[in-house]
Amino acid sequence: MVFLICLNERIIFADIIPIFSRTNTVGRCQHTDWDACEMFRLQELNEARQRAAQMEKTMRWWSECTASWREKWNTVRNERNRAREEGQSLRTALAEANAEIDRLQNAKREVDTELARMKAHMHTILKERISNGDLSEQSMSPETLRLTLDEQCEARPEHMHVATNTDHTVGTFTILNLRKVETRCNELQREMQMAEAKCDELEASRNATKEEIEELKKYQEQNLANGSLQKHAKAIEAIKSQRDEALNEVQTLKMEKEFLMQQLKMLKNTVELGESEPSKRN
Q1: CA-CA distance, 191 to 185, in Å (whole number)?
Q2: Is the Cα dihedral 230, 232, 237, 242 positive or negative?
Q3: What is the pLDDT of residues 166-223, one digit of tens each?
Q4: How many structural domains compose the chain?
Q5: Percent helix, strand, coil in the chain (nearest 5)?
Q6: Which range marks the domain in which residue 33 is found?
Q7: What one-character-per-residue DSSP string does 249-275 give?
Q8: Which sequence ranges form a coiled-coil region, renumbered to this chain (predicted)?
Q9: Across the chain, which distance is largest between two alpha carbons, in Å?
């Protein structure tokens, strides 16, 4: 019966040898040398345990490396997303600045049109006064004419007073109209200056925004040129592949360990049977 069990063991080992090459010496065990065979099995079991412990250390190390690379990748990705958001906000600010500049330019054109209309109205009033005899072209000095027909509407009110001998009421009404027109011209000039200052400010803001966008583009191109993201991605893929290989090897070692434990149990049972048969014969 012992011989048949050993023979069965050899048959079992012969079937398993192609799978686990480290058990190719099992066939040398004989039924007369159970202690040596058991020591050999224990030695192989210890080696399998050592390999499993080493693989666990390797897996732990690879896990730490993967976590480190994942943290670095998250940092780079957050920086990229933040740069994209900043670029988007700057583009929005640039569009708003352009719209504000267009609006102020339209307002400036309207102010210029209103100013031209007011000047034409002033010239019309002066011509009417001259034609009505309130002012004579012969008695009007060049200095008075220059101040009256000032293109920039900067003549002071005291230069607008002219003596009226024929109709005092009409002259007073005309002077009041001229003062109103002058005041309106001054207001329009101030508004135009404010609009020009606002345009200059928005233009400077737009230029600064363009410079920031160019810097962001250069930074993004530099990152793409360096290939840092691609390197991180390749490194992560390599780590994943190595981790999969390590997992496969650990799984193989676990299967080998289970097989060795089964063989050890079979050997112990065989030894117990061998010891019980001589006692029965006696």
Answers
A1: 10
A2: positive
A3: 444 545 656 666 666 667 666 776 777 777 777 677 777 777 777 777 777 777 777 6
A4: 1
A5: 85, 0, 15
A6: 2-281
A7: HHHHHHHHHHHHHHHHHHHHHHHHHHH
A8: 80-121, 178-277
A9: 166
